[in-house]
Design goal:
- This protein is of the alpha/beta class.
- The chain has helices spanning 11-16, 25-35, 55-63, 90-101, 121-124, 171-180, 195-204, 251-260, 324-332, 352-361, and strands at residues 18-19, 39-44, 48-54, 83-84, 105-109, 115-120, 137-145, 165-166, 169-170, 184-191, 211-216, 238-242, 245-247, 265-275, 279-284, 287-293, 296-308, 337-342, 346-348.
- The protein folds into two domains: 11-129, CBS-domain, CATH 3.10.580; 137-361, Spore Coat Polysaccharide Biosynthesis Protein SpsA, Chain A.
- The strands form six sheets. A seven-stranded mixed beta sheet has the order 11-10-7-12-17-14-18, with helices on both faces. The protein has a three-stranded mixed beta sheet with strand order 1-2-3. Strands 4-5-6 form a three-stranded mixed beta sheet.
- A hairpin with a 2-residue loop joins strand 8 and strand 9.
- The longest helix has 12 residues, at 90-101.
- The protein is globular and about 70 Å long.
Length: 364
Amino acid sequence: MVNKGIKSMDSVKLQSILVSADMSIKEAMQKLDYTAERILFVVEEGNKLVGTVTDGDIRRGIIHGCAFKDGISKLMRRDFVKVDSDMDNLMYHVKEIMFNDKLEQIPIVNRDGVIEDMIRWIDIFDKDVVPLQAALKSNPVVIMAGGKGLRLDPFTKILPKPLIPIGDKTVIELIMEKFYKHGFHNFNYTLNYKKEYIKIFLQENDFSSYKLNWVEEKNYLGTIGSLSLLREKLKETFFVTNCDSLLAADFAQLLKWHSQYDAAITIVGCHNEVKIPFGVLEVSDGKLKKMVEKPVHDVIINTGVYVIEPRVLSYIPDNKKMDINELIETVAKKDKVSVYTIFSGWFDIGQWEEYKDSLKQLGI
């Protein structure tokens, strides 16, 4: 391993993120999630480095038509940044590249192109150098908190869904914390069912770091209709999130993706496996072509989190019921709707089984 005044990566850890080009996209996605290093290095025989794969590369590959079963050779980057292990002033050059190119990790290779190490931001900078809080951004976050939460009955006969506890905090506290971590502090609530409970909670707790606002539905306006009540407040790109959707995502990167794709709406989708617990028959003209035992299908599920442009509000009628699927279908006919795919970190607490499963995954 390289050691020129820089902390080297453990050799076992390094080996865990070296992969071959014939690895499937799904396998790469799972390995990224398991190792939590945010990058994989594609190597040939002898660990010669030929490419890199990040979650962003997979996301772009999927949106451009790659299938989960395809090999990562279809989307890996071959023009990656690397540093030679015998370079003078190695630490200086690594720091300079990280600052200038905004890279979190850089591979170190020898003169034959063989990867010897990976240097991460946290390996060369004090923790204090990494900002604990991103710069504040003005983009509003709308939390849809007016529903009755019937799927969590009888819990929601007592408490509104936004105040359901997850450990020692409520759902909406966790949602706001996750957005605030990336600099988003301007929260707008749409309220209806048991709205007084939510208003009291927001007023009587210390949320001084946030800018809070709410509007109240007179009638139930569906899953997106209440945005019409915020028409005068949403003048720049904004987020919308269901109050039962917890997302471990980089919202600043999500906003950047949305802007790069010049989308009117960006839907956050999460990979999920649908397992069929039966043998599936493929039939043609009454004859069996193939029988697949308990197949697994890879799908991308809508998480209930969106990035939306203000112009989309023109499609939402005043004080009339409208659901999000209606809005998306309408907008997609005239404008661009993109999908930002994540591969883990989505917790749906909208019904009991998912709520209990989410608590387990969160270690609560």
